[in-house]
Amino acid sequence: GNTIGLHQARAEYFALMGDFKQAIQQLEFAKRRANNNFQLASRIDARQQEIIAQERAVKDMMN
Hints:
This protein has three helices and no strands. Helix 2 packs antiparallel against helix 3 (38-62). The longest helix is centred in the last third of the chain and has 25 residues, at 38-62. The chain is elongated. Helix content is 84%, strand content 0%. The chain has helices at residues 3-16, 20-33, 38-62.
């Protein structure tokens, strides 16, 4: 099956629910599985960075 896609979908779900740590973790799993596909791993990494920035923005708003 498409395990990488599954992890990516889970990451998007967790990000939407505000569970950024779990979203980042799911993308980490996806990235490990995509290690032989540089383009895909790069896209996953970029999304991970976006979620980290989103998490930071939410934390800043709460302070």
